[in-house]
Amino acid sequence: MHLNFHIFENAATTAQAVAELIKEKAQNTTAESYVNIALSGGSTPQSLFELLADEYETAIAWQKVRLFWVDERCVAPTDVESNYGMTYDTFLQRTFVPGENIFRMRGEEIPEFEAERYRNLLLKELPARNGYPVFDLVLLGMGTDGHTASIFPNDLSLIDSEFSVAVNTNPYSNQKRLTLTGNTINNAKHIVVMITGEGKAELLKQLNENHPETKKYPMAYITGKVDYYVDKAAASKL
Prior knowledge:
Layout: E1 5-8, H1 11-27, E2 35-39, H2 43-55, E3 65-69, E4 71-73, H3 83-90, H4 111-125, E5 128-129, E6 132-133, E7 137-140, E8 165-169, E9 176-180, H5 182-186, E10 191-195, H6 201-208, E11 226-231
Parallel strand pairs: 1-11, 2-3, 2-7, 7-10, 10-11
Antiparallel strand pairs: 4-9, 5-6, 8-9
């Protein structure tokens, strides 16, 4: 199995390519519809959010874009570890995305209750297929251990969970997380995995070659319509 790669010069041009993809999807919506996007946290998406804030305020039809979250740490939105908080600080505080188009995971709530609330919210706000919500675009990253969303190598059961949103525990920090499950992510119309830097080059090589080692990587089970947007450093071993 070979992955579908789009390779760019550096992290900045990788982020710009994803921004242009969002712009295109917003332009292609009908008058009555939205482009529904699930966002991830982390340093690579942060560069995208900064770019969107600085250069795409008027270039994208933000009234046609609705934002959801792939995962969230179970902390308050003002906490430095909050994925929503990072997105707000770098992007959403500029207010050109309508507030009614923002659907955050509430990390400050009791996790199990919040997972249920978010499941119900997704079923209300999004179309469904095979019992799972359908996003137009899911933006993912990948950890150096091969994890994606908040699905970690120590527990692959969330790949095929019956629930669209679940609670998980980070095995390294024991911090609770809310996360979309594998079935929800794979149900999306389009999945984009943003990866930059040479630190994940070997991992990408293994995934691309379907190395036996990858069976323990959650990223290997993201098998919907997936495009990898990577810079030359991350692609250096392909």
